[in-house]
Structures are given as structure tokens and as C-alpha cells.
Design brief:
Elements lengths: L11 H11 L4 H9 L5 H16 L4 H10 L1 H7 L7 H9 L3 H17 L19
Helix pairs in contact: 3-4
């Protein structure tokens, strides 16, 4: 069982996540979502915020939805007033092609590059490779 998602906004991971979530409040991001064919924008932003929460914290959408139902602080951070069902989220996401979703993520990435937030790849690197003797 995974630990619950408890927002700690002083932690670097939560700071980065919060800055990414804040992007959906910008008019320019909403315009880009409309250009990408993602409508209705307000509902789409909600679904995408929940999906990004799942991606960012390596959880399933179902786990995130359950956490949002239980944790009021998490709902406040993710900006979710009413938690949609998992079926609603999957149904919404299934309407989009892979290209549309990738285009949306590239738009988000472009806005991250313009902002003061910088993302680092913290993937574990194994320097000890097996050597042939």
C-alpha cells in the first residue's frame, strides 16, 4: 500500500507540482487548450490536473480520485471542488487522440520553460555497470 498524498508545499516536489498546476489558471494556456481541440476547457483542466497528479506522483487515476475524496487539503492544492468519478476521467481522456494529449503536454512544457520553474530529470542513474573480464 502506498503512502497517502499529503501536500507539503515547502517540499521541492510539491513546489514544482503546484507551479505546474497553476499553469491551468493562465488565459494563454486555456487558449492553447482550445486550439488543441480540448473542450470544454474548464472541465478539461480539471481532468488533466487529476491526470497530471497521477503521473507526477506515480499513482493510478483511481488512487488519486480516492485520495482526493478523502483529503480536503489535496483537493485545495489540486484545485478540485468536486471530485469526478474515475469513469468520468477515463471517458473524458478516451475522447482525445494520443497526438492531442502529447500536443497539450508540449504546450504545458513550453509554458514551464518560460516560467521561473525549472524541471530536472531526477531519474536514478546506475554508474556501476557489469563489466566483462
Amino acid at each position: 500500500m502506498k503512502q497517502p498524498l499529503i501536500p507539503y508545499l515547502a517540499h521541492p516536489t510539491w513546489i514544482i507540482f503546484n507551479n505546474i498546476i497553476n499553469l491551468f489558471d493562465r488565459k494563454t494556456v486555456k487558449k492553447e487548450m482550445t486550439k488543441a481541440g480540448i473542450k470544454p476547457v474548464k472541465r478539461a483542466a480539471l481532468m488533466i490536473r487529476i491526470t497530471l497528479t497521477a503521473i507526477f506522483f506515480e499513482r493510478s487515476v483511481t488512487e488519486v480520485v480516492e485520495e482526493l475524496k478523502r483529503n480536503e487539503e489535496l483537493r485545495r492544492v489540486v484545485r478540485v471542488a468536486e471530485v469526478p468519478s474515475t469513469d468520468e476521467i477515463y471517458s473524458f481522456l478516451s475522447r482525445f487522440s494520443e497526438d492531442q494529449f502529447i500536443k497539450l503536454l508540449s504546450v504545458i512544457n513550453r509554458f514551464i520553460k518560460r516560467s521561473s520553474v525549472k524541471l530536472l530529470d531526477t531519474t536514478d542513474v546506475n554508474l556501476f555497470r557489469e563489466q566483462k573480464i
